[in-house]
Every structure is written in C-alpha cells, then in structure tokens.
Amino acid sequence: MKNYSNIPARKHFLLNITTVLTVAALTACQPASPSYESGMQKNSAAKKDLALDGAAEKPIPAEAPAAVAYSPAAVYDVQETAPHVTNTERYQKQPDQPVKAVAQEPVSTFSIDVDTGSYANVRRFLNDGGLPPEDAVRIEEIVNYFPYNYPLPTGTHPFAIHTQTVDSPWQPEAKLIKIGIQAQDLAKKELPPANLVFLVDVSGSMDEPDKLPLVKKTLRILTEQLRPQDKVTLITYASGEELVLPPTSGDNKDEILRAINKLQAGGSTAGESALKMAYEQAQKAYVKNGINRILLATDGDFNVGVSSTDALKSMVAEKRKSGISLTTLGFGTGNYNEDMMEQIADAGDGNYSYIDNEKEAKKVLQHQLTSTLATVAQDVKIQVEFNPATVKEYRLVGYTNRTLRNEDFNNDKVDAGDIGSGHSVTAIYEIIPQGKQGWLNDSRYQKALAASGGKNEYAFVKVRYKLPGQSTSKLIEQAVPAVSIPLAQADEDTRLALAAASYAQALRGGEYNGKLDWDTIEQMAKQAKGKDPFGLQEEFVELVKIAKSLSSKRVQEQ
C-alpha cells in the first residue's frame, strides 16, 4: 500500500471579487507554487455544491439530456493559487501482471471483479487537473466501467461466455483475447425484497461539499427506487454509532428522506462498532431469500477502533457467512482511503464504487440498481488453459489483486467475486503465438512441447460459479478458436474494451502499450463509440483528451 502525501487536496474557496483581484495581482509577480503533476486546474465553476461569499447553496439544475448525462466538468488552464494541504490518500500497490511462458505455466486462474470505483476516482483526478497515481488505476475496473452489449444467456446458466481474438495494437506480434461474461438481467419488479442498511460516516472528515452533502443526495436517489416490500435502516457513526432510523418500509419514503436530510458531520471516526451495529440490525431485519446488504458511505478514514484494512477484512469476511453482503460507496478527496474501501467490499461479497458527482450516483444506484443489489451468481472464478501448440507466452491485463492459485478453481471453499443482475465482466489476455517474437527467451524444450498439441485452439476457458445460497459450484466451458481478426473489424464491445485498457495502461506508465501513443488511444476511443444512452463513451473520449494534455505537460516539464 502506498500513501500519496504530496498530492494537493481539492481546494474550496469562499472569495469575494475584491479578494480575487487582490490575489491575482499579488501572485502574478510570484512563481507558481509546486504541485502534483500539472497542478489543480481552475474547474471550480463546475462545482455546483460550492457557494460564493457564503451565499446559500444553488438549486440543483435540471437534469441534462441523457446523451450528455455523464459529461465531465470543464478543465481550464488557469491555475488556482492556494496553500498546500497535505494529502493522505491511500492506495493498494498494484504491480502489472507478469508475462508467463506457456511451457512453464499454461494455466491462469483469477476471480471476477465487478468493482468500478477506479474509473470514477481517476476521472476525479483528471477533472481536477492532475494525473492519478499509478496505483489508483486498476485496469479491470476501467474496462468494466462500461455496460457492454454481450448477448444475454439463453440456457440454464445465469450467464454466458463470449470471446473474440484480435491483432494487438500494443505489440506487432501479439494477439488480444477478450473474454466477456454477461449475466442474466432481472427487471426491477422481479427483484426479491430488499433489506438495506445505510451506514453513513458523519465524522468531521466528512464535512466537505463532495462528502456528506453528496452522500445525502446519493441516498435520496436510492430511496426513490424503493418498493413497498423493501425496508431501510439508517445508522450513522462519528465518535460513536447511532441508530437514526429503525427498519422502515420503502413505501414510507418521506420518513426515510427526513432522516437522511437531518444528517450532519462532526467528531472522530469510530467505524468498528458502527459496522458491528450495521450487521446486527441487518440480521434482525433479515429477509430469507431476499437482498440483505449494508451500504457503507464514507471517505474510509477510520481512526478509532479497528482501523487496519486486514482487521476490517477479517471481520467483514466472517459476517458475510450469515448472508449479508457489504457494498462500499467512496466519497471525497484528501484523506480518501481507497485501499480499505475496495478490499472490504471484496471481502464482503459486495461491490465498490467511487461517487464523485451526482450523475455517478444515478449510474450506480438508479440506472444499474439491479446489478448493484441483486446477485445472480456467487464465487465466480475463471480459469484459462493455453494451448502450447499455438501460444508461446501470455499475460493477464489487470486483475492484480484477484489472482487465485490454480488449485483454488475447484475448491468451493475459496471465496471469489459475485456477479449482479445484468452485469457484464470483461477480461483481456495478451498472447504471443508460437513462432513469433515475444518478451521471453525460448525455453530449451518449448519446441517439442509445441509440436505435441492441436492447432485449432488458442485456449480453453472454464468458469465456475455458485447459485445464490448454494455451496456447490457449477461449471461452464468454452474453447477459444485459433483465429484472430484486425482490431478495425472487431465488434464495438471489443474495440471499446481495448480502448479503455489502452487508456488505463497509459495512465500506469504505458510499459505494455508498445509504441501506442495518446493520439492513437483517442482515435480508438472515438472509433469504438456505439450506442451510448447515458453519455459514458462520449465522456470517455473527453477524459482521454484531458489525460493526453496532462501527459504532454508532464513530458515538457521533465
């Protein structure tokens, strides 16, 4: 885990026009203060939560058309001058996956990942005028942020497997195998009754416009989706925990909203006892064969009680055995503990999202509500066996902290990721075919091994999963044909996934991007655009442009 202590925190100012002019006049004669990457760009005009001169908060504007619903805030070239604020954001170390020789390790095993928090967190950095720390960029979460149009399953399994192999834009001799999993899609009315516990951090660290006020907006959005058969419990914690609202039916929205609206920040952060209370309340209101889930909304700054990530993971992992899952919703900047947020959601059989604006809240808890709450398959593991007759080397793109031992694949006691209703999961392998130049030296006995197999398959994909509430896994298998096509001929889903992976790899330093530059990544993003009802792909193109500009400035400053 790394502690990024030199990143300027987001700066919020309450200035009158005289002060603005005075500061501008003084700072014009002074050198710019040092900052992380290119510094904080002046985008405060887009911060709808901030008021000027102590004025009341501006009314929330009408929702934009769907086509631009997720357009990022504008990024300006004028820099703000402000005192440096120490940043204590924490991220888990994320080394790139190593290249493997098929002759030595022909099998690769990993757990699926449905988290998307890294994408929104990276967006926050870019919109604030700085490149993200490399460890904040998890490639699989960038790729899986987008909803893909994979065909829905038609058989008895709750999801289907789709593969496509294309020529790699990263290495001239390589191929990219995209593996897509599409879960069955339940309509909202088909969801079982939900028992939800809102666990809200109201400590002093949450007293920022992008923290508790945004949490309240997020919970209001979810409350509006509730049905009469659903129920909500609200617990807050700061120096201590408080049961603000006992289990309340979803048809009593006014009472739930009143409780949410009264939330105020103050105090230290005693997260351990609050988590225990949340599980106790969830157990009391437990719905058999229903959705039983805690939604933890916090910046992750636990400083009282059990505060280490490992201790929290152990507690959450033990509690999940009772059938109660944990979803984490991350907020804020400066002291944000993403390391903890992502890992305890994984341990709690839930998902992790980072909420940087109201539109992201709508994406997670309105447009994708069923996939966020309703699980259709548990402990989903993927195992890929590569054919030594056709593949010499491979590497898994991302999924660094999801790798499993090969023997874990058949072990039903080993926990893995869950997949929600309508959710899609995408994984990418880069392979070097036999006879082509790769990253590694040829092994002494590789040629003899390569000659022993058939040549009509690149790999064989196996997926294990459990139906919700069951303890025995089921198996799906599918071969990957030894056929590839140019990237330009690939379907829109594959082109979008590879554009997203290229963007993420570039933000991580571009070690495996070869000669692929930002201009090409921008073209890939534009050419991958298809149906985009919520403007996600349009926003992605804009983020690539911002990253390209900031990367160029970094090179110029070196």
From TrEMBL:
It comes from the Bacteria. Pfam families: VWA, vWF_A, YfbK_C. CDD domains: vWA_subgroup. SUPFAM superfamilies: vWA-like (SSF53300). Residues 195-373 form the VWFA domain. This is VWA domain-containing protein. It comes from Neisseria elongata subsp. nitroreducens. The lineage of its organism: Bacteria, Pseudomonadati, Pseudomonadota, Betaproteobacteria, Neisseriales.
